[in-house]
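Dear Dr. H.,

I hope your travels went smoothly. While you were away I took the liberty of generating a structure for the chain from your last submission, since the lab meeting agenda had it listed for discussion. I wanted you to have the full record in hand beforehand rather than looking at slides cold. The sequence, exactly as received, is reproduced here:
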Amino acid sequence: MKREKTKHKGIYKVGDDYYVTFYDGTMKQSKAGVPYPAKHEKRIGPRLAAALKFKTDMEGKVGRGMYSTIHRQETTTFNELLDLYDKEGDGKSYILQFRDTYRDCFGTRKLSLITRKDLFAFRDKVKNTPRQRGGAEVTDATVNRALAGLRRLFHFALSREYLESSPFPDWPKSGLFYSEKKGKKRYFKEAQIEEILDEARKPIYPLWARPAILTAYYTGMRTGESELLALKWKWIDFHEGVIRLTRTKTLKDENSRGQEIVMQKELVDLLKSLPVTSEWVFCQPDGERLRQWHFYNCFQKILGAVGIDPEEYSSKEIRHTTGTLMHKKGVPVTAIKDQLRHRTSKTTEDFYIGADHDYQRQMAERLELNSGKIVGRGVISTGETFPNA
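The corresponding predicted structure, in token form, is as follows:
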């Protein structure tokens, strides 16, 4: 088909479509070894205005050295991005757990073709897909975790220059993420945690049950496989009296000294009394590490035995108990933050103090008027009665 020139340099028309030719700023060599500028051509479509806009944008991006990124995002598939993340990424669990879901939705699509509209479609698809276990509805929090993992993948692509920009919106009120309602942070009262520990002594439970629960309570460690159940003897420094976690929810650098947890004397004595049968502090009888379901199933049975509803409470409340009881006993917020290893005191204040209704009630009691009593809707003070409104 005939190639027609236009009055705009670098823009040609073939049939009904416009084509744009441009240079990416790199050099190639001919067979004779003569260098020449690398030239590219792209079909735009039937609109001249679109071709002009593309040419102007491309010239600006080439001038800023962005062409290689543009080329990669137009040729790289989402599956290839996931493979690259497996090799070079940080292995975030909330990405890996949704990996198959991401592949089903985006798989062979080029990165440049994934738009914001596709993100909303992905959200709706995840929300409307029943869980495998019992067909229960997928919660808003689960959908948000899937979106957060996808967003981190795109940020990873940006950092490796496989994307020019992320399709995720920058503003928080875009409507893409569901609004999660944060209720009261549950915790065990001091008498309840003592009942739990007494129950865990019974021979019907594994030998690791009580020491693991007590360690979680003293340290505030998360009871999952990244912290408590991953605890190794080599991470415990009895001389310094600290535990150094090298892999946590917020830390993945096993070569660093990690996050430090100061141990109380009672905890030091407890850990020293445990037999060392494996590299793991808490392990199965054969020395293999414990898994999440081992601890979860055991703890739920203990809760039921002491009269605490296992549908309402779980092992995550142990960490909440550590923070809340420290607060109730008058420990400063900064010390609680350090023990729970929060990044800022705001997290501690919002979730362990702001959610403490008893503490808030004590503070509200300070509003009581010393000079009188509240009676119905009127106030009696110094013998004078104010009529009801």
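Two observations you may find useful: The chain has three domains: 3-65, 75-159, 190-361. The chain has 15 helices and ten strands.

With kind regards,
E. W.
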